Structure formats: structure tokens, C-alpha cells
From TrEMBL:
InterPro entries: Homeodomain-like_sf, HTH-type_TetR-like_transc_reg, HTH_TetR. This is TetR/AcrR family transcriptional regulator. Keywords: DNA-binding, Transcription, Transcription regulation. One of its GO terms (molecular function) is DNA-binding transcription factor activity.
Amino acid sequence: MRSLTPSAEKICAIAVEQFAELGYDASSLNDIAAAAGMRKPSLYAHFAGKDDLFQVVYARALHAEHEYLEACFAEKVTAGELPGQRFAERLNQRYQASAHLRFMLRTAFFPPSELRPVICAGFEAYLARLGELFTQALRRYAPALDEQQQRLYGDAYLGIVDSLNVELIYAGAGAFERRLAALWRLFGESLARL
């Protein structure tokens, strides 16, 4: 990840909020610069343009969400907790609190066409790591599962998380909670039988 000056850090902190709320097309470098207390030409001292700023902010969002994944799955498992349950149950709360997650998901679902390869590669790596962490937790929970069963549960888990992400982006917290309750009940019952 590119190292930034304090001014560039400030610009990124403002830009992630704008990009998360408005997306790429509706975000304005003039507005970002003004919120950072500078004029647009000063922003160009730190970033070559909108694409450069967007990519730096996206890389930082991915980094923040990777760190969150690692921390969430590293927490001590409580009695009766199923693999991946904590991450799924906290997803709505994380979405509300983290501009990085809101930006990452919005960008993954609506990537600017010229940056699509970079966006897709970053998001696919994030999903792959989520799948790896879930599979590691599943192995600890049910060590007798063979690789094919682990892959099946891993794919189902990623499908659940993807469905929950869609609810957060399109429908909001209420729909998210209903979808989580339904999917986790069925998935959790299946896991509990292992």
C-alpha cells in the first residue's frame, strides 16, 4: 500500500466517505478538496487525478476490511458458536460503522468500467480470504469433513455473505436481519449436525 503524507491521508478519509455515499461518477474532486480545506489544484499535488485517488482509497478500504476479517476470525470462539457466525451477525453493524466496507461493497457491485479489472481482482481476493478463514474455522469445528464437504460449506457460506451484502446495499438493515435469520437458521442447523 502506498505511503501517504498527512494531507493525502486527510484527502483519503474524506474521499472514502464521498465514494461510499455517492459512488465514482457523482463524487467531485472539487468537493473532496474543499472538505479537506484546499483547492482542487492542491489535491493534484498528492494524486494524479480521480482514478488515482479512487484506486488509493479502494486499496486502503480493502486493507481495512482484510484486517477486520482477520481480527473477527481470530477472536476466541464461544460455546455454541458456529463457524462464520460472528462475522455474519456483525456484518450489518460493520456496514453502518465502516465507510471502508460501504465503499468496498458499492464499488464491487458498481465498479467504474475503466477500473473494473482492478476492483474485481481486489474484491475477489477479499472473498477468497473470507472463504479461507471460514474453512479454517470449519476444520476446527468439524475436523472429520473431507475437502469436498469443506468446499461445499465454504461456497454456501460465501453465498450467504453475498446475499447479505446485497440486502445491505439495496434493501437496508431490516431486510438484512430477516435474510440473516432465515439463512443462518438453515445453514446453522446444517452445521450443528456435523
